[in-house]
Design a protein that fits this description.
Order of helices and strands: HEEEEHEHEHEHHHHHHEHEH
CATH superfamily of the largest domain: Alpha/Beta hydrolase fold, catalytic domain
CATH architecture of the largest domain: 3-Layer(aba) Sandwich
Shape: globular
Strand content: 15-25%
Helix content: 40-55%
Radius of gyration: 21 Å
CATH topology of the largest domain: Rossmann fold
Oligomer: single chain
Strand order of the largest sheet: 1-2-3-5-4-6-7-8-9
Number of domains: 2
């Protein structure tokens, strides 16, 4: 019996090793085609939100799944057509008769430059928090890059409306790929910046995408209140980095309301000089360069707190979640060792949700920092997810 078990283990290990080699070879092949695939047609032909522009299968999908990358139409802050890139992955198991339920994942900050798109990574599935667990449970997973990442367009960094449009339109586009066999039910799941994106999507789904059936929204350490986020973080390297990504994005998005100089006025001369270079760097792959620029600017990047200085106070409030009630169940996970999205900020947001009548499952995780918040929350989120997708009402921590 013991020898038989060893033989089975060896066979499984061999299969996984061969699959790892296969995936690496295919990932390298995908990289060689990225430039052509992500180049949107110019001029961009007209298309409805969620209409697919281009799609191709990803050969490096994990064992037991099939995936596609695609470009699709979405809308920016002004309602103008914008091309966006995304990935959808589905399990190879047969779908339900009414189609697969999809988890729409909002990714945390990777940067604001076009090259920082998660789908451009060598392994684009590696950072999808919970993807393997979702696939095992039979869900499809859709992951947008957000406007400005992957496909050349204006950055949407921390802009709630274009981010949320791209999340919802990615679900529409994924459903339009016949092989995905996705139904009309979906759940939103986001971490950090992705938390802001999916919370805005939850607030706006019924109006923006009424043909879709939103079952619930789950977030981990969400960037829900940007005024608290900026006020808390502007005194450290995280705040300097976030602001350097946000300022150019807001200058472009709000050019009809404020001149670039008005929005840049909050920067010190050193901050203004450093911002364009930092905005071009990706958080994960160029972190050392970011620190080299940002560390000397801590405490002298801005002239005042953006959360209390106009016009930034107004714009941060406009892009904070909570402007409209969320009518579906909400799951919130928060690490108590988080120094980027502080526990107090998430508690304040949950209190707001409760006052708006939402059903909120709010769980805190001791000794968990910002980077691991989604992974710490995942087991509880999966339990919550099985409840909402079964049509039952999950427990609420609102008093």
């Amino acid at each position: 019996m013991f020898l038989a078990i060893l033989a089975i283990v060896a066979i499984v290990a061999g299969v996984l090793s061969v699959d790892a080699i296969r995936r690496h070879v295919e990932e390298e092949a995908d990289l060689r085609t990225d430039a052509a695939f992500y180049r949107a047609p110019d001029p961009l032909p007209a298309g409805e939100p969620g209409e697919v522009i281009r799609v191709e299968e990803i050969a490096s999908a994990p064992l037991g799944s099939t995936a596609w990358r695609f470009l699709y139409h979405s809308r920016d802050l002004d309602g103008e057509d914008v091309p966006v890139s995304a990935i959808v992955i589905v399990p190879d198991a047969p779908p339900p008769a009414d189609g697969r339920t999809v988890v729409a994942w909002g990714h945390p900050t990777t940067g604001a430059a076009v090259t920082c798109a998660p789908s451009l990574d060598l392994d684009p599935f590696q950072l999808m928090e919970g993807v393997h667990e979702f696939l095992l449970e039979g869900y499809a997973v859709v992951a947008t890059d957000y406007p400005g990442l992957g496909v050349a367009a204006a950055s949407s960094y921390l802009l709630g409306i274009p981010e949320s449009n791209s999340v919802l339109d990615a679900v529409r586009a994924a459903r339009a790929i016949p092989e995905t066999r996705i139904g009309d039910e979906f759940v939103l799941w986001g971490h950090s910046q992705g938390g802001q994106a999916v919370l805005f999507a939850a607030e706006r789904a019924a109006q923006y995408a009424p043909e879709l059936d939103l079952l619930g929204v789950a977030v981990a350490a969400p960037a829900a209140d940007l005024t608290e986020l900026m006020s808390d973080d502007i005194i450290d390297v995280s705040g300097v980095t976030i602001a350097s990504y946000a300022i150019p994005a807001y200058q472009a998005a709000y050019a009809d309301r404020y001149s670039p100089a008005e929005l840049a006025a909050i920067l010190t001369p050193a901050g203004a000089s450093a911002t364009p270079e930092m905005a071009a760097l990706c958080l994960l792959s160029e972190n050392a360069r970011i620190h080299a620029i940002a560390d000397p600017l801590i405490g002298r990047f801005v002239t005042s707190d953006p959360a209390t200085t106009e016009p930034w106070r107004t714009l941060l409030e406009e892009n904070s979640a909570g402007g409209s009630p969320i009518e579906v169940p909400v799951f919130v996970g928060q690490g108590l060792a988080d120094r980027l999205v502080r526990p107090e900020a998430t508690e304040d947001y949950v209190e707001l949700l409760c006052t708006q009548g939402a059903d909120v499952r709010f769980l805190r995780y001791t000794d968990v920092d910002h980077g691991f918040a989604a992974y710490a929350a995942l087991p509880d989120m999966l339990t919550w997810l099985s409840t909402v997708t079964a049509g039952a009402k999950p427990p609420s921590d609102c008093r």
